[in-house]
Design a protein that fits this description.
Blueprint: H1 4-59, E1 81-86, H2 96-110, E2 114-119, H3 121-129, E3 136-138, H4 147-162, E4 168-176, E5 182-190, H5 216-298
Parallel strand pairs: 1-2, 1-4, 2-3
Antiparallel strand pairs: 4-5
């Protein structure tokens, strides 16, 4: 059984660890709040852009564009796929990284001819350690995503797409449905299904006539790169928010476990201390009794 000195050292160690996990919880909550604010600030622009794309399809439903499947044909394309995998730079976030990597592995299993484009140090190390080739690794941190980084990523992927090196482009990220629910998902970015831009039931549709200059295809082709950048930026922000949320959950669980462990250690410390005190009292009483008996014999 450990002595009081060892138990006391263990208690101090747990308390120091609890300070770290509590600080990480507060930092994650601050980053989550800031990232949500940034996403809310940029969301109206891309929602308006999506509305304009819907308006184009309502006006000219049969327009052809390399960014969309042909009219009436939604079958998967043959060729090389590209997959942007968004992970964190570190762990301590529950199953956040593992869920995203599992989605990427599922895509690789279904379509082996898939090139990986990775954001986040955790994903880079995972694929490197297992000998899975990475086509391109974005070396900047996954923390604090920006619109400039999203444009760099989309420019690289669209360049490969326009040159015919990639037939379809997917993004593996973690979607934050609400403050308590998030899940890793695989979304196809290119080419889009036309049904993605159909007017939802009950959604207000503007029916005024439009004139496209120089033509509808040129207008659509100039809008889509910005929309793809916005989609990737939203995926980066969603993943970052989910990472912070998962880290908050993990650190909160660690704090509760530390409290329980401190309670158990305190009980054990008190039992050992009481046992030591009882042992000392017993030894003192036995010594006094032995001395008394020795005196009696001498008398």
């Amino acid at each position: 059984m450990a002595g009081t000195k060892e138990i006391k050292a263990h208690i101090e160690s747990v308390r120091e660890t609890k300070k770290i996990t509590n600080a990480m919880y507060l930092i994650a909550s601050t980053k989550l709040r800031r990232a949500r604010q940034e996403l809310d600030n940029t969301r109206p622009y891309f929602q308006a852009l999506q509305g304009e794309i819907k308006r184009i399809f309502r006006t000219v439903s049969d327009v052809e564009s390399p960014y969309f499947y042909p009219v009436g044909d939604d079958s998967p394309l043959k060729g090389t796929y590209g997959c942007l995998v968004i992970t964190a730079d570190k762990g301590l976030a529950g199953a956040y990284n593992q869920n995203a990597i599992r989605q990427a592995q599922q895509l690789l299993k279904e379509h082996p001819d898939t090139k990986l484009f990775v954001v986040g140090e955790y994903g880079r190390r995972f694929f490197d350690s297992r000998g899975i080739p990475i086509e391109h690794s974005f070396l900047y941190t996954a923390q604090n995503p920006t619109m400039a980084r999203a444009r760099e990523i989309s420019a690289l992927l669209l360049d490969r797409f326009h040159r015919g090196e990639l037939r379809e482009i997917y993004v593996v990220y973690t979607d934050m449905a609400n403050a308590m629910t998030f899940e890793a998902r695989t979304a196809r970015v290119m080419p889009f299904h036309r049904s993605f831009f159909l007017t939802a039931p009950g959604e207000r549709a503007v029916t005024e006539p439009f004139e496209f200059v120089p033509d509808v295809q040129a207008v659509l082709d100039s809008m889509m790169p910005s929309y793809v950048s916005g989609f990737i930026y939203s995926a980066l922000i969603d993943s970052f928010c989910c990472e912070q949320n998962a880290r908050m959950t993990a650190m909160d669980s660690a704090n509760r476990n530390a409290e329980n462990l401190l309670g158990d250690l305190s009980l054990e410390y008190n039992r050992v201390r009481q046992a030591a005190i009882t042992q000392e009292i017993t030894e003192v009483s036995a010594g006094a009794r032995a001395q008394r008996q020795a005196r009696q014999k001498k008398e």
